[in-house]
Amino acid sequence: MLTQFNLRQFISAFVVLFAVIDIIGSIPVILKLRRSGKKVNAERVAILSLLMFLCFFYVGEAFLALFKLDIFSFAVAGSLIIFIMALEMILDVDIFHERPDMPKDATFIPLVFPLIAGAGALTTLLSIRAQYADINILLAIIANMLIVYFVVKTAKKIGHILGNGIIYMLQKFFGIILLAISVKLFTSNITILIENIK
Length: 198
Prior knowledge:
By secondary structure, the chain is mainly α. The chain has helices at residues 7-21, 27-35, 42-66, 71-91, 107-116, 119-128, 134-153, 155-197.
């Protein structure tokens, strides 16, 4: 497995996951949760997110097999979800809203799910399996979870240093990256699907 390590694939997978997880863009949400009295545990956020990613990484394809779907079809569907997520980031449209019946501990909901390991991130995870070797994706997941831990732990300091303007600009920047990623995923996988039909 280690022989399949490829630095370019690792960096590509890392950037894709970093963009779709968008932990920097989640800083305002983390700060808002803490200001409203919600508990956010950085260690648990990172560990629970890692477990969700790993479970879906290994069981995701078996889950798809139950519905007789292949990774390429899922990648095309995933590219459409990523496209919508990118538009959400660029156009400032919120899909997930905080409800009054949410628990005081915000570690799992809404941070781990749906913000970090949400439908878009898990879809992306399976989508990029069609492009990169497993070892490169797994290392990219671990690297991203280390960043998630650091950001959640130091969100208050980061927010103070960067300011709302910079955070807002970063959100837009990663939204554009996601838009480009969604187009690439769609075109590369739809081509394979069309060839298989022939």
